């Protein structure tokens, strides 16, 4: 709005940068990470592995309250002198803690403290997810019979347990630079507006960038891997076909997780580095695309000749598949040093990042909610409203971010409060910014349809029978729907097969639940799992 129609919203540059910073940090850390791992992980892992609860339910409860405390500390930064930090969600020093930046006092301190508290809370929950997956599986539930949703959440949790300490350490060091005047990241520098040398010397801002992105790129997959797992289940269930290449999909998730730790510096090409260093990270960036592309091929092959049901969850799953593929292709552009340098800090990066880390995961979140809402509430969401919500969200998102690629090629810079009356602001870019703003407003208001659907359907939605999607995984085989405390009644289920026995030749129905013994389906020609 500010870029397209300057002055329409009464705000100055400081407020603009503070809003942009909080938007980035809240969406990446406090929403998507917490929602995929804390939300879906907490609810689905015990049900899908055949457990009654998390192995440490008390610690799990404490992790929630610690997360809430982290959010409250973050919100509190709006009520301190100077307001929240406006350093950008990457919080780069020396900018983040010098006087020319909004919120360089208490704002940045509260941001760092909030992140530290969040990491503590996540560690409590994360250990719970890992141990529950490894130790609380029901009889017969081998690792290679786990639904891919569990594999995605499990692997992402392991990544987070290794990656978040880098962010925590970087935050503590910058906190010491800000409060005690140490020089971990602060070089000898003149104070803005005064020209006097500040009491720092010898620090390395590049060190912070390495620590941040050592966390930051695994963070992309901390969000993406659970989305991969969930969308695999949605596609398989709603196409009535077993997932293509299950073991390949599992190993792709694990390999992506490992490789995510050796690609971080492709975010830092413009920071200056040895050409061989750049060559190494450009190469690893291309290598990590191989298992990612493998998953896309397997999703497409799962759909191939399936009995595709164009339900609302399936629409969102297909929308994710298209969006993530488009965003991934632009990632190959930015993984190449010679292409990334001129495109860095332009709207091309904004478009790529939001397609991969914003729109694609959010589409999966919506698809998952439409899919598991009957399990949670015993009722369906309204189908017609769901399809309206999907099409406005999907087409609206493309209307917002596709034009930004062009703006990036035109050289329009990101993170600018004002860019009119500049060499970047031609007639075409001005028109596109106005078009993007209108599309964003329409898409944003369309989410009211979703919220209305969620609230009204709790009492007035169509009642769902048990296992309405005819899925094979254990969460749908609970004794009651919605599942009661303890999930599975007096006895835990026994698992005899994987979670994807759909359209099995010889079977009476087009699905065989995981807890159905071979004696009950003697004529079915199932794969041995």
Task: Give the helices and strands, then pairings.
Blueprint: H1 13-49, H2 57-76, H3 106-135, H4 148-179, H5 205-239, H6 246-259, H7 275-303, H8 312-335, H9 337-343, H10 347-377, H11 383-409, H12 427-460
Helix pairs in contact: 1-3, 1-4, 1-5, 1-10, 2-3, 3-4, 4-5, 4-6, 5-7, 5-8, 5-10, 6-7, 7-8, 8-10, 8-11, 10-11, 11-12
Can you tell me about this structure?
The longest helix is centred in the first third of the chain and has 37 residues, at 13-49. With 529 residues, the protein is mainly α. It contains 12 helices and no strands. It has helices at residues 13-49, 57-76, 106-135, 148-179, 205-239, 246-259, 275-303, 312-335, 337-343, 347-377, 383-409, 427-460. The radius of gyration is 24 Å and the shape is globular.
Task: Name the features.
single chain, 529 residues, 0% strand
Beta-strand segment tally: 0
Q: If helices are DSSP runs of H or I spanning 4 or more residues, what is the number of helices?
A: 12
What is the H/E order? HHHHHHHHHHHH
Query: Mean pLDDT, rounded to whole units?
Result: 92
What general form does the structure show?
A: globular
Low-confidence stretches: none
User: Which range best describes the helical content: under 10%, 10-25%, 25-40%, 40-55%, 55-70% or over 70%?
Assistant: 55-70%
- Strand pairing plus helix content: what structural class? mainly alpha
Query: Approximately how much beta-strand content do the residues carry?
Result: under 5%
What is the gyration radius calculated from CA atoms? 24 Å
The main pleated sheet reads as: none
* N- to C-terminal distance: 54 Å
